[in-house]
Amino acid sequence: MRKLEGFPYKKVLVLGLAKSGTAVSQLLHRQGIDVVVNDLKAQDDNPSVHLLRSLEIKVIIGDHPLDLLDDIDVIIKNPGIPYENPLLEVAQSKKIPILTEIELLHYLHVNDLIGITGSNGKTTTTTLISEMLKESSIPSRIAGNIGHVASEVAENLAENETMVVELSSFQLMGIEYFKPKVAVLLNIFEAHLDYHKTLENYKYAKANLFSNQTEEEYLVYNADDEQVNEMIKKANAKLVPFSRKSKLPNGAYADDTYIYYNNTKVMKIDDIALVGSHNLENILAAVATAKLYNVSNEAIKNVLQTFVGVAHRLQFVANKEDRLFYNDSKATNILATTKALQAFQKPIILLAGGLDRGNSFDGLKPYMSNVKGMVVFGETASKLIDLGKEIGLENIEKVNNMEEAVKCAFQLSSPNEVVLLSPACASWDQYATFEERGNMFMNSVHKL
């Protein structure tokens, strides 16, 4: 077990249970740090509350008493808790540091770490990089937003293992010294503005991924993305670009036929199993990263010839009477849905809707030429109905839940068409997670 070395805080308030809060509370307790846990919504019968109290960790639930701040040195908060939380606002006025659990990776001395962020494609790219390392017999562990809590994995990481970590803007807001050996910045699109308030705040959070890097580290970045190109001007790391639009003197790029790295052919594009032009960007990012670890072309080919995607991300579900059903529940913003729409040439019945974050859906308009009908649900249903009417769709149906949506979409569709769940919204108005939403979709498809 790795030890927290140089951790300057003696008493920690962990704010928010969930998976990360529960894990980090146990980690700190094992490392001999004095921990108190506070969660607003948890009940006494919550298994995490029982577990932590059985370890004699103090757990306060039901409210956020401000006197908790009287004798603590630092807050480690659940990434999803906004900084406008009253307890956090008082903590900021008292200049109490507010971190997320990934900062602990610095004190656990995880030096061989690949960190992946971006508005879309994080999970696919993280998985591809991990698979390429494994195919090349490089020991690695996957963590972060995908898989296990990052600090929990880091505590038990072997010296010869590489950590491959998917990181959200919420996590990256709460760092001081954390830095990866290889940072991967995929793309930037206006997202999570209900949390970050402005695009500049969002970009600032994402840029934290490489803000502490030096010339000894690497930054793999999307040379096709204007926002990314602006952000990386402040980077100190060695720059490794990727592009699906331009030939590059170094880094990874694609033409109509091949993928290249440093102007050397890696493999034919036709041999890649994963569909969608947006996934080509994810693939190029993974190739560029893998090459920094000297992964062979053969290992890269073996992965890309067989990898067909991860759950809830343009995941093929079933063929029902010649209708092809795809689960893209991870599409929690407009950019992700535009990428999904571009992946298909066939007519599409689009299932969309969810949490209303105040945005319009005008950004979908240029990509809806193949959309034959829409089935909408959730808080944004009326906005999506307006969108459908504006582009002249005749088949627009509003439903209450996913089972109704699937049945309705099947009725609207014809053979040789695609039924695509790509909501363009977070799930939290009706479902706890996008995974729960996607599973409901798949279960409903299988019931047809």
UniProtKB/TrEMBL annotation:
Q: Principal localization?
A: cytoplasm
EC assignment? 6.3.2.9
Task: Give the pathway.
Answer: Cell wall biogenesis; peptidoglycan biosynthesis
Indicate where this protein resides in the cell.
Answer: Cytoplasm
List each coiled-coil range: none
Ribonucleoprotein found in the keyword field: no
- In this chain the Mur ligase central domain maps to 116-290
Q: Where are the transmembrane segments?
A: none
- Key words of the record: ATP-binding, Cell cycle, Cell division, Cell shape, Cell wall biogenesis/degradation, Cytoplasm, Ligase, Nucleotide-binding, Peptidoglycan synthesis
Known role: Cell wall formation. Catalyzes the addition of glutamate to the nucleotide precursor UDP-N-acetylmuramoyl-L-alanine (UMA).
Q: Which family does it belong to?
A: Belongs to the MurCDEF family.
The protein in question is named UDP-N-acetylmuramoylalanine--D-glutamate ligase
Protein source organism = Gracilibacillus marinus
